[in-house]
Amino acid sequence: PKFTKRRLSMNFNQLSGTSRKYTQKLLSPSSIAEGGHIMAEDKHVSPTVVESLMSEMKRELQSCREAMAADIKAQLENMHRELKNDITSLRAETKAEVGALREDILHKMDSLRNAHAQTAKEQKEMGGALSDVTDRLVILEKNHDMLTKDHKKLQEKCTDLENRSRRQNLRVVGIAEGIEAGNPSRFVAEFFPDVLGAGSFDTPLLIDRAHRSLAPKPRDGERPRALIVRLHYYADKEKILKLSREKGRLIYKGSPVHIFPDMSPEVGKQRAAFNQVKAGLRQAKIPYSMYYPAKLTFTLDNIRHSFTNPQDADTFIRANITHPAYKPFHYFIIIEAEPFNFLLI
């Protein structure tokens, strides 16, 4: 466009120059001077001379006009050709540029279309994979819940079987270390009659085995480990527990001892959680019982109450027992022994 505008400006300048050239030729200073000289010399020029001069001037003007018209026409034709060539060239260049731009846009559109198709494909695949993962997760959650229930049942069964295997076991707490002199079975066979009374047993106790608990051996001054005793007959074990409850406080060689049924660690922890509640009940002079696995039972105002949760038991007792000796406790666990032994198992 700048080139065409410049070309048009140049052509119009040429036309203006041609017009000025022919005007200067027609009205040249010599012609004007000559006519003026004739008019000055003879003020009384005849009409014939004037007409002759006018005719000659008309002819020259006509000739100049025709020459100007021919020259202008030639220049206009030349300008037309040049403009036509410029427009044709400009059209070709514009068409080429538009074509190149179109090809570039089409190429980019194809790239975008391919990228969109690939993205849509990947999104579809991801949606399918996510749906599959969701389905598998639902199945896994169901299986997990089922396995959790089965695990809980199996754990309860294992705990029950372990405690059944300990049904003939007793745990004796408070016996000094080393007093068994390397033969714990013979020692406990003599210990029970000494503590509970020899007349309480018609026949000697049959002890399958006896040993200290598996805790590390204590140092001097520390609490001794418990003795684990397995009796051959279940009836003997029940008889020993009954006599222990009836006698109350047991003393052996000047030291208090306690006799408990031997339980698994899980049941022991569950029962030990009630220790502080039971201590409070003893302070309030309220008898209680512990049933397997860990169920605290006591009677208050002729109503029997049972608890499997120590916090619930403590809350109930604080709300219903006004005995000044009972105070709320912080809960902690004692695995080896309980402070007293008058329990109904």
UniProtKB/TrEMBL annotation:
<dbReference type="InterPro" id="IPR043636">
    <property type="entry name" value="L1_RRM_dom"/>
</dbReference>
<dbReference type="Pfam" id="PF02994">
    <property type="entry name" value="Transposase_22"/>
</dbReference>
<feature type="coiled-coil region">
    <location>
        <begin position="137"/>
        <end position="171"/>
    </location>
</feature>
<feature type="domain" description="L1 transposable element RRM">
    <location>
        <begin position="222"/>
        <end position="259"/>
    </location>
</feature>
<protein>
    <recommendedName>
        <fullName>L1 transposable element RRM domain-containing protein</fullName>
    </recommendedName>
</protein>
<dbReference type="InterPro" id="IPR004244">
    <property type="entry name" value="Transposase_22"/>
</dbReference>
<keyword id="KW-0175">Coiled coil</keyword>
